[in-house]
Amino acid sequence: MRRLREVFLGERMVCAACAARGKMSATRLATTGKLYNFTVVHRNFPGVPVPFISAIVDLDGGGCVKGNLVDMIPSVEAIKFDMPVNVVFRDAGRKDKDGNSYLAYFFTPAS
Prior knowledge:
By secondary structure, the chain is mainly beta. It is about 0% helix and about 40% strand.
């Protein structure tokens, strides 16, 4: 029997690839990867500053995640497919009812 190695973000009880139950386990994902795809967003919901870079990154060692690419000029000319990136955690710009900041992951160009 072929064993699949699927990667999902968030806690799950059932594998979306094979429907197995109770066999999911946590794994640490890499903090480095390569830019797979992107778009420069120029229009968004009111109150969300634009432009920004929405990116899809293939993580080293497996997994594919979507987030914002930060710390660079949001222009198509400045961004390269397959460019190496780092995953960083930062203040997401929102707070909970107690005033605590939400943290989120972002991508930065690898130096």
